[in-house]
Design a protein that fits this description.
Elements: H1 4-10, E1 15-21, H2 24-31, H3 35-49, E2 53-58, H4 61-64, H5 83-88, H6 95-108, E3 111-116, H7 119-125, E4 132-134, H8 142-149, E5 155-158, H9 164-175, E6 182-187, H10 201-209, E7 214-219, H11 228-235, E8 240-244, H12 262-279, H13 291-297, E9 300-303, E10 318-321, H14 332-335
Parallel strand pairs: 1-2, 1-8, 2-3, 4-5, 5-6, 6-7, 7-8
Antiparallel strand pairs: 9-10
Helix pairs in contact: 2-3, 3-6, 3-12, 8-9, 11-12
C-alpha cells in the first residue's frame, strides 16, 4: 500500500489534509442524516474541493482520558468541561465503520487517514492506511509511538506543546524501528490558536534541525478570508498542511469554529498554485523569455573617441554602452593592447575583425 500524499511531499508538491476528526457527528445532527452518511458527505465535499487526504480520529473515551481530565479548549465554543465526557460523545465508530470510510475514500480519489489513540485502533487501522499520524498529545508516549512505527509505514508526527529534546526523543524512537519517510508537523496546542501565537517560524527551525525529514504544519487558527496563515506556512517550507474541516463553521462545539470549509480549501489551493507559479524552478540560469532583454540591455565595448587605423587600444579610448551585441565588457583585457586594423569612428560597437 503506497501513500499518494507521501509521494507528493517527497517530490516537493503541496499536500492538504482535511481533518474531519469527529465533526461529522454535528453535521449528522444538523442535517438529520446518519453518522456514516455525514462522514461520507464530508469526504466527498473535501474531495470535490481538492484535498489530497482526509483524516479521522479513532479512539474510545475509556482508553483515552480519565474521568476527571479537565478541558483545555475554548469553553465558550465547546462548553464541555471534561475531556472524558467530550470524547465519550464521539467514540461510537470502530473497525467496521472506518473500513467503510476507507473504502469510500478510494472511490473519491482521496487518501484515508485516522489518528489512532490506542493500540487497538492502531492495529485495526493498519490494513486501511498507508501512513500513520501521531497526535501532539502522544509525542512523549514513546511506547505507543514505537508500536505504530513498527508497522513500517511512513509517519506524520505533530510536535505541538513540545521542546526540542522531546522531539529528538520521539524521532529517535521512530528511527530505532522505522526508516520510512517521516514528517514533523509544527502545531500549537491551543484551540483556537491566536494569530500572534502561531509561531510559524518554528517551521524554519524544524527544517534546520531535521533537514533529512519532511516538514508540515497542523493548524488550529481561525481561518482568515485569504488563508494567510496556511499560505505563509507553505512558503516557509511546510509542504504538508493539515487543518480541521467542517461544512459549517458556525456550528458550536468541538472543532468547527477553527476549521476550514470547502470554500476555504478552494481559496487555499488557488493561493498555493500562485505561490508555486511565483517560485518557479529556482535554477540559476537566464530564462528563455529574458534572452531579448539580455541582448539589448547589456553593454558592449564601444569606442569613446575616433580611433585611427594603427592605434594601439588603451582603456581611455574605450567605454561601455548598450546593446550587448558586440564584445562583452568581460573581454576588455583581450581588446586592450590590440591595434586598430581600420579607422573606427566614435560611438562604434567594436567587433573582433576591427583589430589586428
Amino acid at each position: 500500500m503506497k501513500s499518494h500524499i507521501i509521494q507528493r511531499a517527497l517530490a516537493g508538491q503541496f499536500v492538504l489534509i482535511a481533518e474531519i476528526g469527529v465533526n461529522y457527528y454535528d453535521i449528522a445532527a444538523q442535517r438529520g442524516i446518519t453518522l456514516p452518511e455525514a462522514a461520507k458527505l464530508m469526504i466527498s465535499e473535501a474531495a470535490d474541493a481538492g484535498v489530497h487526504a482526509v483524516k479521522f480520529q479513532s479512539y474510545k473515551a475509556d482508553t483515552l482520558a480519565a474521568k476527571q481530565s479537565p478541558s483545555y479548549w475554548d469553553t465558550s465554543e465547546e462548553p464541555t468541561l471534561s475531556q472524558y465526557e467530550l470524547f465519550a460523545k464521539f467514540d461510537s465508530f470502530g473497525p467496521q465503520e472506518y473500513k467503510e470510510l476507507s473504502d469510500y475514500c478510494q472511490t473519491q480519489g482521496v487518501e484515508f487517514l485516522s489518528t489512532a489513540f490506542d493500540v487497538a485502533s492502531a492495529d485495526y487501522l493498519d490494513k486501511m492506511m498507508a501512513v500513520y499520524k501521531i497526535s501532539s498529545s502522544d509525542l512523549n508516549n514513546l511506547p505507543f509511538i514505537r508500536h505504530q512505527a513498527r508497522k513500517q509505514k511512513p509517519m506524520l508526527l505533530s510536535v505541538g506543546a513540545s521542546n526540542a529534546d522531546e522531539i529528538d526523543a520521539a524521532v529517535t524512537a521512530i528511527r530505532e524501528v522505522n526508516e520510512q519517510p517521516l514528517a514533523l508537523l509544527h502545531c500549537v496546542l491551543e484551540y483556537p490558536t491566536p494569530y500572534e501565537h502561531a509561531n510559524l517560524n518554528k517551521i524554519t527551525s524544524l527544517r534546520l534541525r531535521y533537514p533529512e525529514l519532511l516538514c508540515g504544519y497542523s493548524d488550529h487558527t481561525k481561518p482568515d478570508q485569504e488563508l494567510w496563515v496556511l499560505k505563509t506556512a507553505y512558503t516557509l517550507g511546510a509542504v504538508i498542511i493539515e487543518k480541521h474541516f467542517t461544512l459549517d463553521k458556525s456550528l458550536k462545539g468541538n472543532d468547527h469554529y477553527h476549521a476550514m470549509d470547502p470554500d476555504d480549501i478552494r481559496v487555499l489551493l488557488k493561493g498555493v498554485k500562485m505561490i508555486d507559479t511565483l517560485r518557479g524552478s529556482g535554477d540559476l540560469v537566464c530564462l528563455e523569455s529574458e534572452q531579448q532583454a539580455r541582448a539589448n540591455a547589456r553593454r558592449s565595448i564601444v569606442s569613446a573617441v575616433d580611433i585611427f587605423a594603427g592605434t594601439v587600444l588603451t582603456d581611455d579610448l574605450l567605454t561601455f554602452k548598450r546593446p550587448g551585441s558586440g564584445i562583452s565588457p568581460v573581454q576588455l583585457s583581450t581588446v586592450v593592447g590590440k591595434r586598430a586594423a581600420v579607422d573606427i569612428p566614435q560611438d562604434t560597437i567594436l567587433k573582433l575583425d576591427m583589430f589586428c
